[in-house]
Amino acid sequence: QVQLVESGGGLVQAGGSLRLSCTASGSIFSINDMGWYRQAPGKQRDFVATIYSGGSTNYADSVKGRFTISRDNAKNTVYLQMNGLKPDDTAVYLCFAGLQEGRSSAYRPYWGQGTQVTVSS
1 pLDDT exceeds 90? Predict the structure, then answer.
């Protein structure tokens, strides 16, 4: 019943920018953390960034200073502003959210289907 939908991916040249968004919908009581992982072809899924309900953030070292994560709690939406993109950033970007479906439910992770980001040199 819970669904996460990403948007904003695309093809850009090195040095360009993209802004990803991910909106959670369905039966949602509370969201704790929201964020992003990415997976390049033939490689494992890697952490990118996360933001907690109180506003604290974590970033992978590879994106610090270039990417900014933010969220709109009222819209159950998380954003990833990506600047100074590099070819190594090319990957499918996957949104996640740790959320409760009801007040008595445990927090559990939910995942979007992913959005493709391709950075050309």
Answer: no
Give the C-alpha separation, 56 to 18, whole Å: 22
| 3-class SS string, the chain | CCEEEEECCEEEECCCCEEEEEEEECCCCEEEEEEEEEECCCCCEEEEEEECCCCCEEECCCCCCCEEEEEEHHHCEEEEEECCCCHHHCEEEEEEEEEECCCCCCCEEEECCCEEEEEEC
d(CA 93, CA 39): 7
Q: What whole-number distance in Å separates Cα of residue 121 and Cα of residue 117? A: 13
Taking residues 5-28, report their average pLDDT.
97
Residue 99 CA to residue 75 CA, distance in Å, equals 14
From the list 44, 86, 35, the residue with the least C-alpha distance to 65 is 86
CA–CA gap between residue 57 and residue 68 (Å, rounded):
9
Question: Strands 18-25, 30-39: parallel, antiparallel or unpaired by DSSP?
Answer: unpaired
pLDDT over 90 at 59, yes or no: yes
